[in-house]
Amino acid sequence: MLHVLRFLLFPFALLYGGIVRLRNFLYDQEIFSVYRAPVPVICVGNLSVGGTGKTPQVEYLARLLQPRKIAILSRGYKRATKGFILADAHASATSLGDEPFQYTQSLPGVTVAVCEKRAEGIQRLLALYPELEVILLDDAYQHRAVKASSYLLLTDFNRLFTRDYLLPMGRLREARAGARRAQAVVVTKCPSAISLEKQARIRAEIKRYASSATPVFFSQIVYAPAVPIGAAKALGKRLILVTGIANAQPLVLHLQQEGYELVRHFEWPDHAAVTAEKIEEVIAYYKTLQDSNLISIVMTQKDAVKWQEPSLAGLWSHFPVFYLPITNAFAPQEPSFDETIRGWVPSSGSVINA
């Protein structure tokens, strides 16, 4: 049935692909205007729709490149605001979007802003903070109006772009050949024991589309200990899981492997708004359970920033609510991922010429 559906959608994918190729050609030839910033700009993105782990990757880069003066610029997907917004003490997931607001919580000292037009956003940031040494563009691989100094392409181990198709046949925003713009590729969400043989096969598969000189790295998700944001300080062994992310299965598997019992999973769509009604539904279910003192409510950090809206916090703050922070760990390789990224930007304090 899937093959039949793809066959029927093929003409639409062909049309879509032609439009994207024409657009890329016009930017490549600079027939459409392209902005180049006077500081290093690292673009983190993917070829497909859906989650590939951009948020933990951007956080990893920001920590890696400190103590340089760093800014993160995002579109601010599904925020309630428009235009350029600089994160400040009054920022929230509503004003910035959930991922940019998460950056403000996880990365104190890093400037965070959102703007649909990335060129305008970069110029506004540099006008406000001329001392900035590097700007990280979150989810901007297809934003061709800015020419980044380096492109980091992510692809999910379980959904490699090399085996996918253009929209609407598949999940690709642009053709696989778009990988040639990348200075490095990261295969995210890998199993913990990915063999060297498997790495070699995937690397060869990716290099059919990326440059032969482009390094391919392999990363896995690492879950940190649960952080309490509600009443309890210790995570129970029976959990109510709440997620509003693209793919919750790795988190589900991790919790089960760690010996936790999932009593119920409230699985909402990626970037779903968190409302009072949704929180009340979770809390009402928690109250119906016997031995509720042994049960905790757990979520990702991306979900937690939306629960922490001041207007919502009073609904759950007296209950055992936790979030699980995540980061990336990279398989050993020479040169390493860290060395490669540090080579993209000068040392802190170096003079950068426009």
TL;DR of this structure?
The protein has 354 residues and is an alpha/beta fold. It has helices spanning 2-28, 54-65, 93-96, 98-106, 118-128, 196-206, 249-257, 276-288, 301-307, 310-313, 337-342, and strands spanning 41-46, 70-74, 85-86, 111-114, 134-138, 150-156, 184-188, 216-223, 227-228, 238-243, 261-267, 295-300, 321-324, 326-330. The chain folds into two domains: 29-222 and 332-342, Rossmann fold, CATH 3.40.50.300; 227-324, Rossmann fold, CATH 3.40.50.
SSE inventory with pairings:
Blueprint lengths: L1 H27 L12 E6 L7 H12 L4 E5 L10 E2 L6 H4 L1 H9 L4 E4 L3 H11 L5 E5 L11 E7 L27 E5 L7 H11 L9 E8 L3 E2 L9 E6 L5 H9 L3 E7 L8 H13 L6 E6 H7 L2 H4 L7 E4 L1 E5 L6 H6 L12
Parallel strand pairs: 1-5, 1-6, 2-4, 2-5, 6-7, 7-8, 10-11, 10-12, 12-13
Antiparallel strand pairs: 3-4, 8-14, 9-13
Helix pairs in contact: 4-9
Rounded to an integer in angstroms, the radius of gyration calculated over CA atoms is 21 Å
Find the structural class using helix and strand composition.
alpha/beta
CATH architecture descriptor of the largest domain: 3-Layer(aba) Sandwich
Rounded to the nearest angstrom, the distance between the terminal CA atoms is: 54 Å
Question: Could you explain the architecture of this structure?
Answer:
There is one protein chain. By secondary structure, the protein is an alpha/beta fold. The protein folds into two domains: about 30-220 and about 330-340, P-loop containing nucleotide triphosphate hydrolases (Rossmann fold); about 225-325, Rossmann fold. It has helices spanning about 1-30, 55-65, 95, 100-105, 120-130, 195-205, 250-255, 275-290, 300-305, 310-315, 335-340; strands at about 40-45, 70-75, 85, 110-115, 135-140, 150-155, 185-190, 215-225, 225-230, 240-245, 260-265, 295-300, 320-325, 325-330. Strands 3-4-2-5-1-6-7-8-14 form a nine-stranded mixed β-sheet, sandwiched between helices. Helix 7 links the parallel strand 10 and strand 11 (about 260-265). It is globular.
